[in-house]
Give the backbone structure.
Amino acid sequence: MSVPAKYREIGDFHEYYSGTRVAPYITLFVGGNHEASNHLWELYYGGWVAPNIYYLGAANVVNFGSLRVAGLSGIWAGYDYKKAHCERLPYGPNDVKSIYHVRELDTRKLLQIRTQVDVGISHDWPRQIEWQGDFNQLFRFKPHFKTDAQNGRLGSPAAKYVMDRLRPKWWFAAHLHCKYSAIVQFNRDADSTPAANAIGAPYASGDTKNVQNTKEIDLGNDAEQPLDGDASGPPAKIRNNDEIDLDMEDDVPAVSELPRSNHGSTVAQASESSNSVPSDLRDQLPASFARPVPVSVPFVSHPETITNETTHFLALDKCLSGRRFLQILDVDPVSRSPDIRANTQQSLTYDKEWLAITRAFRNINPLTSPVPYDHGESHYRSLIEAEEAWVEENIVQSGRMVIPENFEITAPVYDAE
């Protein structure tokens, strides 16, 4: 677990793992940067970590009742984005951090979704989402966010790619230790870019409206001062000795470390270092040392079957006394899949399209370097369509879409004595 030694202590999860306590409702979650990553890695494709508590894996789409939910685990670090999942036990000091960095391959799978989802979940905020809400109050509450936001460093480009593609009705996140809401309006005629400036280009104060979310439930005062507090200056910071400091993370990349995306958004790419190997010497090396040749990705317009134009974003604070960590919402589905509509029970089920995508990518080992280039949506579409037919025949028609409640204890249960 990537935390300073003084924070390493046994909490209460072992009680849920052992069955001493049981979550009263089905609970879905994605992985962040302070998890037992070795435990979660055993469930790369998703699975039960305890009765009624389901981990969505590195990336996933599942259905709960009539809601279609997509999830992306991890936080952003540009220098690890294009890498394979190369970490192996026992984890070293670098592995314990890189294991929770989001990877392009997992993002790529979510970007193949061509039908509407209702809810998106990520740990990291989607890049640039701060400009879609009341950012002036956000920067008063968290002054150190402002520079990162203006420099295009706040949040995750990978989460933004997925949000822009899926356009769910709701997107939930955490990570930055404050409650914040925003509304993203998408241009229906645009391809994969929302009605917003490019990554790293902040809005002027008059360029966006602070839209009040009428469904928001106010949970009262925050011990650290709510975002609608006094606008005259930043609130007095009350130091909580039990709080894990965000600044302890040393794996936040500089802008120059961010890779170039194939998914419609431009991110700065590191320029070639002045001390790199000269080209005449590189030409003398064996072919295996040659730089990989980028693949030309054909342009594909945004799917017509993804029709939602407004995404409501909500991030909540940490689960501590006096903090805004809980909100109850009614979520009306906007997805129209007949397979989902037939699931009237409050059960967790597999998603037909996601199963097909997973099968289409089964020959790409997430553990093996180098990760094959993204060949573009048009390349994967025919593979996915063929796999959808297989899923329909072998999974849907045989009535095997309900995710079995097959949690098993696989490690010794914690014993305080």
